[in-house]
Amino acid sequence: MSAIELITKLREMTGAGIKDCNNALKEANNNIETAVKILREKGIASAVKRADRVAKQGVVVAQLSEDKKQGVLVELDCETDFVARTDKFKELADSLASFVMKSATQDNILEQKFDDTRTVQDVIKEAIGTIGENIVLKRTAKFTTSGEIASYIHMNNSLGVLVNFEAPADVVASEAFKNLEKEIAMQIAAVNPLYITRDQVPQEKLEEEKAIYVKQLQEEGKPANIIEKIVLGKLNKFYSQICLIEQPYMREEKDSIKTVIEKVSKDIVVKEFARFKIGE
């Protein structure tokens, strides 16, 4: 057989990738049975077979640079809670978070070089073979700021939040700010806002919501001039549910998050956030 035919046959037998098959054949001096054994020993063949199994457990990990000017959030999924709680799986998640921190881009993260010989996908494949479950790097986030990045991880690593705060250096250095960033991260974890401010809500989402309210009120027999006022009130309530700045503060609902932030400084801006929860 030609080299191409050998690789094709080995791929059909194991489901492994072209590169893995080529390397295994070289190591096996083109003996296809030995190459199959090599792939199985390395866990690559079994990794492919597991790739269609559902990864619905896992961990969320965060890492911050020493100066808190950069931060990353990573969700790594597996099949069972048992594996998610193992040190080996958590170490893999931490190593991937460290890689994301150093990476210049979030594009095609799986294809990026993890080290001199392996891509990120190669590292995950090796872990699949060792651990024996499907493993998926589900999502990553990376923020850079002139202010400070904050993170919050729920105690069982099933939920994590990363927040980018823009604020002057003297504000960032204050004790009040340190407490505020922790509270805002926990607010996002607990209440799950979809946006920061109302101007970020897509127009089509607003129109859809308004149409629902109008139809409800028409069916209740409300006159048109009254409907408009009621819809406005309902939309304000809608904003307070999905927009972080307008949400009631979880510890004191009479205050909005905007009020809580401004009590520390009006110069603080929540620039962006990421919230990862296993299973969502």
Compact overview of the structure:
The chain has 12 helices and 8 strands. With 280 residues, it is an alpha+beta fold.
Polypeptide structure, described:
The protein is of the alpha+beta class and 280 residues long. Helix content is 49%, strand content 20%. The chain has twelve helices and eight strands. The strands form three sheets. Strands 1-2-3 form a three-stranded antiparallel sheet. The protein has a three-stranded antiparallel sheet with strand order 4-5-8, covered by helices on one side. Strands 6-7 form a two-stranded antiparallel ribbon. Strand 6 and strand 7 form a beta hairpin. Helix 1 packs across helix 2 and helix 4 crosses helix 7. The longest helix has 19 residues. The radius of gyration is 25 Å and the shape is elongated.
Summarize the helices and strands and which ones pair or pack.
Layout: H1 3-14, H2 18-27, H3 32-41, H4 44-50, E1 57-64, E2 70-78, H5 81-84, H6 87-102, H7 120-131, E3 136-144, E4 148-153, E5 159-166, H8 169-172, H9 175-191, H10 203-219, H11 224-242, E6 248-249, E7 252-256, H12 257-264, E8 269-277
Antiparallel strand pairs: 1-2, 2-3, 4-5, 5-8, 6-7
